[in-house]
Amino acid sequence: MARYGMVIDLRKCRGCRGCTAVCAVENNVPVDRTGEEAGEQLARWAAGELDYYNMRVLTATVYGQIRSIPMPCMHCDNAPCIAVCPVKASYKRKDGIVVIDKYKCIGCRLCLKACPYQARYIRKVPVKGEPKGVAGKCEFCAHLVDKGEKTMCSRSCHSGAIKFGDLDDPNSEVSQLLKQNAKKVKRLKPEYKTSPRVYYITF
């Protein structure tokens, strides 16, 4: 069984935010938490004022330069969101992808508070018949992975910064990248001991 993960090369990311746009379209990411109308939200996104919430792109100053940091869900091996869910709506698939059963979710927000990466949100607008007010997050495009495809963000990244694949396959692109860049690989917030499966190649 594959164990999926992601490698994001910060040296290649241009901050174009294309990953957030294709993610929003593919996964029907709804109006953001402020309840803005979609038109206003899209206008603000185009102006670079806000991100969709399945895939966010943050900015940081690194060595005096502004850099972009794409941030999907980290799909942690020790996911605190799973541990706190009272109805077991959040769970890990056999391939390691952390998903939400939206028909079990009661919208209690405990998972939002437990996630140290702020990767979750509440879907205020029902999507494709889903219940209103349930939690949402990046699910590594599990519906595409099940068909043998890769995540939409990795497929559409023109700079080649985002790579997705099987971490347990030593010949996979992600495994090779981790091996070749071992001294520059970081994971976010190691102090939480969540063992995220999103790795960053740093400068």
Automatic annotation (TrEMBL):
InterPro entries: 4Fe4S_Fe-S-bd, 4Fe4S_Fe_S_CS, ET_IronSulfur_Cluster-Binding. It comes from the Bacteria. Keywords: 4Fe-4S, Iron, Iron-sulfur, Metal-binding. Residues 4-34, 64-95, 96-125 form the 4Fe-4S ferredoxin-type domain. SUPFAM superfamilies: 4Fe-4S ferredoxins (SSF54862). The keyword Metal-binding applies. One of its GO terms (molecular function) is 4 iron, 4 sulfur cluster binding. This is Molybdopterin oxidoreductase, iron-sulfur binding subunit. It comes from Carboxydothermus hydrogenoformans (strain ATCC BAA-161 / DSM 6008 / Z-2901). The lineage of its organism: Bacteria, Bacillati, Bacillota, Clostridia, Thermoanaerobacterales.
